[in-house]
Amino acid sequence: MSDEQPEVRWAPIEPKPKNRGRIWLIVGISVAALAIVGALLFFLLPRGDAPEPGASGSPGPSSSPTETSSPTPGATSTTDPSEPPAITPPAPVEPTIDAFRDQVSGWLTDAPQGLDIIAGSSGTDALSVVDSLVQDAQRMSDTQPPSSLDAQWRDGVSAYAERLNELRTAISESGNTSGAVEAARSAVQNLRSLVGL
Fold this sequence. Notes:
Elements: H1 20-44, H2 97-120, H3 123-142, H4 150-172, H5 178-195
């Protein structure tokens, strides 16, 4: 038995494809991308001799010449020119009664519906609705009322929040909630009539 060996033939190896064009294309695109990034950085980054953002080269209304008295010999300036002047926020604008009504009407409209839901449910369902109403009462407390309603509004919201806490306690203790619901309903109705709803 002789092992037959396959006949071996030698063939020339195919030459590698030339990638010079592809390599130059990649190098060219890379150089172009770096040039674009360099140009963007050059034009967009502020330079040291540029004015500060917000500073204007033109004179503003505050830089007009005004008459000033000559400084007294004993007076010295206590402000540091490198510190920006302290900016006080503007005083809050007092809302009109109509604007205030529009601002709180959603919470005051939802409150009786929430109290109806609480009257028809119990346990955790009722507690989640009470928690939502307590959050609404906190938002109403944080809302700036007109000065003509300020004291009455604050007292009314405080009474409503207190009734909601009593209602939450009654639900947690699995007690009778009808009296607490009616007390909260009366408190929210007082708030509604106060703003004209």
